[in-house]
Amino acid sequence: MKRNYFICRALLVTMFTAFCTALAAATPEEDYNKGMECVNSENQAAAEPYFRSAAEQGYAPAQSALGVCYAKGVGVPQDYAEAVKWFRLAADQGDAKGQLNLGGSYMDGNGVPQDHAEAVKWFRLAAEQGSLQAYRGLAICYYMGWGVPQDYAEAARLFRLAAEQGDVDAMHNMGTCYERGLGVPQDAAEAVKWFRAAAEKGCVDSQMSLFWTYREGRGVPVDEAEAYKWLRLAAEQGYTHAQFNVGSHYLHGTVVPQDDAEAYKWFLLAAEAGEVAAQNLLGMCYMQGRGVPPDAAVGVKWFRRAAEQGDAHAAFNLGRCYHLGIGVEQNGPLALKWYQIAADAGIAEAQYSLAALYSDGELIPQDKAAAAAWLRLAAEQEHAGALSSMGALYMNGEGVPQDQVAGFKCLLRAAELGNVEAQFSLAKCYQEGIGTDKNETEALKWLRAAAEQGYAPAQNDLAVMLAYGEGCEIDEKEAISLLQSAAQNGDKNAQFNLYLAFKEGKKGVEMDEATALKWLRAAAESGHPHAQCILGTIYYLGLNGLQQDYTEAVKWFRLAAEQDSAEAFFCLAVCYKEGHGVPQSMLESMAHMQRAAELGHAGACLLLQE
Length: 610
Fold this sequence. Notes:
Layout: H1 2-25, H2 28-40, H3 48-56, H4 60-72, H5 80-92, H6 96-108, H7 116-127, H8 132-144, H9 152-164, H10 168-180, H11 188-200, H12 204-216, H13 224-236, H14 240-252, H15 260-272, H16 276-288, H17 296-307, H18 312-324, H19 332-344, H20 348-360, H21 368-380, H22 384-396, H23 404-416, H24 420-432, H25 440-452, H26 456-468, H27 476-488, H28 492-504, H29 513-525, H30 529-541, H31 550-561, H32 566-578, H33 586-598, H34 602-609
C-alpha cells in the first residue's frame, strides 16, 4: 500500500514538473496570443496572467496590454500609475499601442501629471507608425490647442487621414469640422456625408448629429421622419438623451403614433440610467397615469430624484406636490424650498406658484410684498397668470402702490396672451373706465374673447349686454344660449338671470314657472344671496307649488344673511317676531332688524324709526 502511494506521489510530481516546464517553454509571443484569445472570447480577466508573463519577458505588445488591464482594472485592481509603467516600457521599445496609450495618459492626467506637450510627443510617434487612433488624438490636440498652437486646418487634415482609413470617431470629427467650417470650408452636405458614414457604423454622436441636422434643417430639408430614424438608433444603443427624446415623441405623438406605454418605457430606461429630464417626465407619467397605473407617491420619488440632481422643472413639480399634498403630506416649508430652487432658476410657473404660497398665507406666513416681488419676476417673463395677478395687485394696491394705469397695462398684456380672467377684468376696466377710457366696443370684444373660452362669468355678462343692447345690437337668442352655457357651468349669476327670464317670459323664452324655480334653486345652492332670499320667501309663503315650510325658509334666509344680505336679515327679523321656523324672540328680532337697517334696508329703517 505504501509502495503504491509513493508511486502515485512520484507521478504527480513528475506531471507538475512537466507542466511547469511546458509553461516556461511558451514564448512571450505565444503567451500574448493566448491572452488575446481570452480577450476576444470576452474573458478579459483570464488574459492578465498571460500578458504579465510575456510583459515580464520584455514583449512590448504584452506590456501595453498589461497596462490596459491596470488602467481598466481588469484582472487586477485599477492602478493608473502601474498602467503608465507598462505603457512606457512598451513605448520605449517603439510599440505604437504603448505610445498611443502613454499619450492618452498624459492627455488625461491618469497616472502622471497632465502634460499635453508630452501627449503630443507620444501621439506623433504612434501616428508615424500608422496608428489611426494616434492620428485622431493628435488631431484633437491641434483642434483644442493642447500642447501645440491651435490649428484647425492641421486638425482637419489629421482627422481626414484617420477617417479615410475607417476610424469612426475621426469620421464624426470630420463632420463637425465641415458643419462648423473649422479648418475646412463650411459645407453642410459634406458634414452630413461624414456624419452618415460614422452613424452607419454605430457612432452615437453622429446619429444624434444627424437627428438635429434633419430636425432643424441644417443644410438639408427638414425631415422629421429621417431625424427620428437616427434618434431611434442612438436610443437603441443606450444613449440616454436619445431615449428621453424617443419617449417625448411617443408622449406627444410626433412622427410616431401617440403611445403612453411606449413613452413610459423609454422614459424609464433613460431615468434609470440617470437622465434627469426623463426622471422628471417619468414622475409626470406616474402622476397622470400615462402608460402606467397612477401612483402619486412613486411620481414624487422620481421628482425628488431629479430635483436633488439639480433639475429645476422637477424641483417645481416636487414643490407643487408639497403645496397641494399630492403623493405627500402638505408641507409649506418644503413647498417653499423646492419652489424657491425652481424660481431662482428662472422658471416662471414656479415664481407664480411661490407668489401664491406667500399670498395665501395658509402654509407659510403671509407676505404680500414677497408675493408681489415673485409675481413681478414671473410677469417680466410674460407669464399670463402672473400678469393678470399683478394687474389685480396694482388695481387694489396690495403689496405695491395702487396704480390703476399700470394695472390696466398688465391686464391688457395678460388678456392678449389669452388669460381668461384678465380678459374678463379688462372688459370691466373698459366698461367702468378704470385705468383707461370707457369703451363699450372694447369691453364687448374682451368679454366675447373670454366667453368663447368658456369662462362662465364672461358668458353671463356678455349675455346681459346682448339682452339689453348695451354697446351692441340686441340678440336675445345668443344671450339665452350664453346664459345656459354659463349656468350649466355653475355660474350663480347666470342661473339667477335664467330664473328671471323664465319667470317673466322675456328675453327670448316663454314663461315657465317650473324651469324658473329650477334655476332659482340652482342659483341659491351656488350661493347667490338674492336667490336664497327669494327661495326662502317662496317657502315662507308656500308659493310656486311648494308647500309652506318655515324651517326651510329660515335655512335659506340664514345662508343669505351670512353674506350680509340686508333683505335676509329683515326676513329673519320677521321670522323671530312671529316665531316662524325659529323660537319666538323679540330680542333676536330687533337685533336682526337693526342689522338689516345698518345694511341699508329701507323697510327696516322705517320700522326702527317708528
